[in-house]
Amino acid sequence: MSMDLHRNVVREAGSANRGVKLLHDPVHNKGTAFTSEERIVLGLRGLLPPRIHDMDLQIKRVMENIRVKNNDLERYVFLSALQDRNETLYYRVVIDHLKELMPIIYTPTVGEACQKFGHIFRRPRGLFISASDKGSIHDVLQNWPHRDVKVVVVTDGERILGLGDLGADGMGIPIGKLALYTACAGINPNQCLPITLDVGTENKNLLSDPLYIGNQHPRLKGEQYDDFIEEFMGAITQTFPGVIVQFEDFANHNAFRLLAKYRDQYCTFNDDIQGTASVTLAGVLSAVRLSGKPLKDQNILFFGAGEAGIGIGHLISSELEGKGLSLEEARSKCWFFDSKGLVVKSRTDLVDHKLPFAHDAEQQSDLLEAIKLIKPTAIIGVSGMPQTFTRAMVEEMLTYVERPIVFALSNPTSKSECTAKQAYSWSNGRAIFASGSPFDVVELHGTTFVPGQANNAYIFPGLGLGLIVSGAERVTDELFSVAARSLAHQVSDSDLKLGRIFPALERIREVSSQIAYDFAMAVFNRKLTKQTMPDDLKKEIKNAMFEPEYTDYLAELKQAIGVIN
User: Fold this and answer.
1) What per-residue confidence (pLDDT) applies to 565?
2) Cis omega (within 30 of 0) on the bond before 108?
3) Helix spans in 472-536 (H)
4) Domain ranges of the chain
5) Which residues does 378 contact at the CB level (< 8 Å), separation at least 6?
6) Is domain 3-82+556-560 annotated with CATH 1.20.1370.30?
C-alpha cells in the first residue's frame, strides 16, 4: 500500500469500529486472524499477540479447549463466551462440528443451562421484555442494534422443554434455537432476535434465588397477560415489518390459544405444536417404509396429550386425509393417553384441544392395558415422564406387529420415555426407534443400529429460510406437511438400512436448503405471498444462506474512499 493510500485508509478508519472497540464487537471481531495491514490501519497493534492465526488454527484451538472441559455445561459456557466475542468463528466451529456440538448448544445441554442460567450468566444476548415494560414495549425493541430482523424466537419461560417453569432463565432456548437457524440453514445471525417475556414465575426456587435474573413475582394471568402479549405482537411486527415470530415453550393453556389468535394476523407459528408435528410426521413417513405397513394402516398411541402430541395428531390426520380418508377416519388412527388415562368420549374432564381425539372405548388408566386394548403399531412419547415405556409394552406390541414404531421424544435426555438401547434390546432389534435428544449408536447381536433423532432442527431452520425467501405472510398447517414430506424424501435407503429414519446430521444444511425450496414453492403456488417467484429459486436460496467467513476490512475501507483494485 502506498503511503498516501495508507493515510487515506487510516483517515477513513478513524470513524469506523477500531481498536479495543473492534475487539469487543462480536460481529466484526476476527481476533488473532486480523492481518498485519489490518492491525496497522485499525489500531490493533499491541492489542493482539503478534503471530497471525488463520481461521483453521483458531478452530483447532477452540475444539481443543472444548474437548478438555470436564462436562457439557462447561462446554456450553465456553461456546457462549465464544459467541459473545467472535460470532463468525463461533458459527464456523458449530457448522464444521455440528454433530458433536448440537447437543451442547441445544438439547440436551441447554436444559441444564436454563436450570442454572442465573448462575452461569455472563453477558446478555437478545432482549428481555418484562411486565414493567408494558406500555413501552415498542421503545424497548428500538434498543436492539440490528434493524433487518427476519426471525424472532420468543418464550415466556413457562414450559421449558420437559423441565417446567423456568421464567426468565428460559432465555437459553431462544438463543439456542436461533443459533440453529444460522448453523443449519444459514440465516444471518444479524437477522435473528431472541426474546424472553419476563411475565413472572411460579417456580418457588427461582422466587427465592438471589441470583435469578428475572423479576421475582408471580406470573401475569388473564387479561393482564393477554394485554401484554397483544402489545408485544403489535410492537414487534411494527418495528420489524414482515418478521417471523416463533412461539417457543409456552405452557399448554396459552400455546394453543395464542397460536389460534395470531396465526391469521401475522407470520407466526408455534414450534412445539407445529414444528414437532412436522418432524415427527417425517419420522413416521420414513418408519412406514421400514415397517412395510402404509400410514393408513398404522394405529398410533400418543403418551402425552399436550402441545406436541396434539399437534402431531392433527398433522398426521391431515396427511391421512390427503390419502383419501375422511377426517373422522383419520383421527380414529390417533389415540391419546394423558395423566388421567386413555382419552375417550366417556370422560368429562377433557379440555377442548383433546376432544377431537376422544374415541369410543373403555376407559383405561394403565398404559400397558391401553396398549392391549387398542393394539397400536406405533407409540409416541411426548409426556416429559422418563422411563415410562417398558419391556412389557414393547413385547406386547411384538405379538401383533412385526416392526413396532417406538418414538421416545421427550426432552432433554433425562426425560426420555426409554433409551435407544432399551427399545432395540426389548424388541431384539425389530423396533423402529427415534428420540427427541440424541442417543449413541447401539450394537446388538452383531448389528449396528443408528437411532434417529426427531430434532425440530431438521424442520424450523429450513422452514424459516423458505419463509424469508418467499416473503410468506402466513404459515398454514399444510406447509408443515410440505416440510415433513420434503424431509422424509431425503432419507436414503442406506439411512434406513442402519435404522436411521432421518438424514445424517452432517447433511443438515443441504437438507434445510431443500426444505426451504419445497416450502417456498408451496408458498408461491398457494399465493401466500405478494412477492413474485424468482426465475431461479434454488439460486436465490443459496445466495440467502450466510457463510461464516471473515470480512476483508481493508477492501471495504478502500471501497469507501473510492479506491478501485
Assistant:
1) 47
2) yes
3) 477-489, 493-497, 508-525
4) 3-82+556-560, 83-266, 274-456
5) 284, 287, 298, 299, 300, 301, 404, 405, 406, 407
6) yes
Instruction: Check for a shared fold between 83-266 and 274-456.
Output: yes
Q: Comparing C-alpha atoms, which of 173, 178, 106 is closest to residue 149?
A: 178
99 catalytic, yes or no?
Answer: no
Confirm if 484 and 516 have CB atoms less than 8 A apart. no
Per-residue model confidence (pLDDT) at position 17? 77
354 three-class SS: helix
Active-site option among 106, 181, 424, 553? 106
- The rounded distance, in Å, linking the Cα atoms of 47 and 335 is 63
Q: Is 527 exposed, middle or buried (0-12, 13-18, 19+ CB in 10 A)?
A: exposed
406-417 burial, b for 16+ CB within 10 Å, e for fewer? bbbbbbbbebbb
Q: Enter the CATH code of domain 274-456.
A: 3.40.50.720
The active-site residue, picked from 30, 150, 177, 293, is 177
Assess whether 177 carries a catalytic annotation.
yes
**What SS3 state is found at 313?**
helix
For the question of whether the overall pTM of this predicted structure is more than 0.85, the answer is: yes
Give every residue of the chain whose pLDDT is below 70, as ranges.
1-16, 560-565
